[in-house]
From TrEMBL:
CDD domains: PAP2_like_2. InterPro entries: PAP2/HPO, PAP2/HPO_sf. Keywords: Membrane, Transmembrane, Transmembrane helix. Pfam families: PAP2 (PF01569). The chain crosses the membrane at residues 12-30, 67-84, 91-111, 131-152, 159-178, 190-210. Residues 90-202 form the Phosphatidic acid phosphatase type 2/haloperoxidase domain. It comes from the Bacteria. This is Phospholipid phosphatase. SUPFAM superfamilies: Acid phosphatase/Vanadium-dependent haloperoxidase. The keyword Transmembrane applies. It comes from Lactobacillus kullabergensis.
Length: 220
C-alpha cells in the first residue's frame, strides 16, 4: 500500500513543479516584470538577424506548429493508436492535447498580452502569451516522446526518435521569436505549460493504466 501511494506521488511531483514554474512565469509576464523585459531583449538580440537563408527556414518551418497542423497530426496519431488497439494511449494523447490547448486559450485571453510591435515575418493573430505554437508542439512532441519510450523496444531507435521529437518544439519556438510574432517569454511560457500538461496526462496514464498492467503481469 505505502509503495503504491509513494509511486503515485512520485509521478505527480514533476507535474506540480512545472505548474508552479509556469504560474510564476505567467505572473511575471502579466505584471510586466523588469526581468521579463530584459530577458526578451537579450534573447531577441541573440536570435534575430537578416540572413535570407534563416528567414526562409524560419518562415517555412514555423508552419509545422500551426494550430491546424498540430490538430491534424494529433488526430492522425490518435487514429493510429486506436487502430493498433492502444486505446489508453489514444485517450492519453487526445485528452492531454485538448486540456493543454483549451487552457492555453483561456490564459491567452486572461493575460491579453499584445504581440511584438515590430514587423511580423509571418501572419499572426490573437494575443501573444503563451505561444500557442510552443504549447501545441511541446505537448504533441512530448506525447511522442512518452509513446516512444513506452512502445519502442530497441534502445537505439528509441534514442534517435526522442532526439528528433525534442528538436521539433525547440525549432518551432525559435521560429516564433525569429519571425517577430512572439516574445521569448511567450515561448518559454508555452513550453512550461505544454510540459506541465504532458506530465499531468502521463500521471493519469500511469495511475489508471500502466500501474494496473504491471500489477496484472506480476500476478500472471
Amino acid at each position: 500500500m505505502n509503495k503504491t501511494i509513494q509511486t503515485k506521488k512520485d509521478t505527480i511531483i514533476p507535474a506540480t513543479i512545472f505548474l508552479i514554474l509556469y504560474a510564476i512565469w505567467a505572473i511575471l509576464v502579466a505584471s510586466e516584470n523588469q526581468f521579463i523585459r530584459e530577458f526578451d531583449q537579450t534573447v531577441i538580440s541573440i536570435i534575430c538577424n537578416n540572413n535570407p537563408a534563416v528567414i526562409k527556414f524560419a518562415t517555412t518551418f514555423t508552419n509545422l506548429g500551426n494550430t491546424n497542423v498540430i490538430m491534424i497530426e494529433t488526430i492522425i496519431l490518435v487514429i493510429v493508436l486506436a487502430f493498433c488497439r492502444k486505446f489508453a494511449y489514444a485517450f492519453f494523447s487526445a485528452g492531454t492535447m485538448i486540456a493543454a490547448n483549451g487552457y492555453n486559450w483561456i490564459i491567452k485571453h486572461a493575460i491579453a498580452r499584445h504581440r511584438p510591435l515590430t514587423h511580423h515575418l509571418v501572419a499572426a493573430h490573437g494575443y501573444s502569451f503563451p505561444s500557442g505554437h510552443s504549447v501545441g508542439s511541446a505537448t504533441l512532441f512530448g506525447i511522442l516522446i512518452v509513446l516512444t519510450i513506452l512502445l519502442i523496444k530497441y534502445k537505439a531507435t528509441k534514442t534517435v526518435l526522442c532526439i528528433i521529437w525534442v528538436c521539433f518544439p525547440i525549432l518551432i519556438g525559435y521560429t516564433r521569436i525569429f519571425n517577430h510574432v512572439h516574445y521569448p517569454s511567450d515561448v518559454v511560457g508555452g513550453f512550461l505549460e505544454g510540459i506541465a500538461f504532458l506530465l499531468i496526462g502521463y500521471s493519469f496514464l500511469y495511475h489508471y493504466y500502466l500501474e494496473n498492467q504491471r500489477a496484472q503481469s506480476t500476478i500472471y
